[in-house]
Amino acid sequence: MYAILDIETTGGQFNEEGITEIAIYKFDGHEIVDQFISLVNPEIPIQPFVVQLTGINNAMLKSAPKFHEVAKRIVEMTADCIVVAHNASFDYRILRTEFRRLGYDFESHTICTVELAKKLIPEQPSYSLGKLVRALGIPVTDRHRASGDALATVKLFKMLLEKDVEKNIVKDFIKLEIEKGIAPKLQDIINKIPAKTGVYYIHNKAGDIINIGKSRNIKKRINQIFTGITNTSKKIQKEVFEVTYEETGNELIAILKETEAIKTNRPVYNRIPRRNTLPWSIYSEKDSNGYLNLKLQKTDGRKKDITSYNNESDGKNALFRITDDYQLCQKLTGLYITKSACFKHKIKECDGACLGEVSPSEYNERVKKFVEKNNFDNTNMVIIDRGRSVSERSAVLVENGQLKGYAFYDLNYQITKIDILKNILIPMPNNRDTKHTLQTYLKKNKGYKILKF
After folding, report:
1. Cα distance between the two ends of the chain
2. Average pLDDT by stretches of 10, the chain with 453 residues
3. Most C-beta atoms within 10 A of its C-beta, which of 102, 152, 314, 316?
4. Residue 297: CA atoms inside 13 Å, Cβ hemisphere, count?
5. Rounded to the nearest 10 degrees, how much is the dihedral formed by the CA atoms of 92, 96, 98, 104?
6. What does the alpha-carbon distance between residue 409 and residue 270 come to, in Å, rounded to a whole number?
7. What is the secondary structure of 78-104 as a DSSP string?
8. Kind plus residue range of the DSSP H or E element containing 173
9. C-alpha distances in Å from residue 182, one per residue of 80, 179, 185, 225, 242
């Protein structure tokens, strides 16, 4: 659990400042589960420049509780949590100073979203909270007030968790949980997981990820693993300490994230996919008569494929469907080896490209329709789909035929420029596997929207 907070102070000399307002949001990695927001009477005057910046003045704080009156609630909100703040060293120092005045030694592990953002979102022009969230398309209200800034930090931290592909933030959190020495029961783990689409990460007692998967219902999938009787399921049941997860809102992002997470983390109970698999591909070649032929061949990285497949059988079955759907000739797609007419021509289902009865230009237009629909070369598009909540959408960016990554954005903050989308993008690798995933998803699913640019 994370206690994401922001503190406003009186200003003044180092270690002599007093708290004027505090906001704490308890965040479980997915949503806010508790909150505490309060003005605080610092019992000393506020510096004039701070009044101008925050709008908080001395008169507003006369009837506010003093720090010792809210101290217990702050301890309750931060107990067993990692304290997260933007420029955490400042907020943590102020809290420790206030508690020290009460004779209490306040201690907590901390995460600074400034340092985290510099690592996970490099090359930003500024890492101040206001400029950073604006660049990332994160909506913020009540700027320079504790509640507004803390809420913006929650949204920023949620984005940083997404961008942490190696899951170092989550691994460090689990290591702290392990230090407490309380191993959760399998049913307790299942109870915490939602019946949502997403990716799950199963951790052992060292915090290491031992299994990764995706599902349209991650709760159901984890339940299947914990009650399974296969050797792998039984090993996972013995070793599991915690399960973390990421909701994705739709299956496309779940598939992309799962594939990359397995390759990056290499869990012991996953089959590690070979990089750039799909050993069979369809290519387009012009024959001596000027006809475009579609050929299923072993994948050759030096040539441009149209689409790829896991094995020869899948490729051949697909080629039969393509031949029928686009009224192509089985001879010219390599499915019927003959020196004369193809079988389909004999039963009057082919109009004779195999015999030259259809002009190359007319026939080639049909082939080009298939190529254009399935080839992303030079394509610039954004695939808009469901987000993790009703107020959110997801965006998958393809630029010049290359998968660039995905992002989630608030419906109140429409993505109108590609540059804004690129700022909040979680990068994904572009290879034959991801291209195949995109092609398959777009063919088999509905409900998404494509924006060309």
Report:
1. 41
2. 93 86 94 94 90 88 93 94 93 93 92 93 90 84 87 93 87 74 76 94 92 95 92 92 93 93 91 72 92 91 84 92 93 90 89 92 93 79 90 89 88 69 85 83 83 81
3. 152
4. 14
5. 150
6. 31
7. HTTSEEEETTHHHHHHHHHHHHHHTT-
8. helix 168-179
9. 13, 8, 10, 22, 11
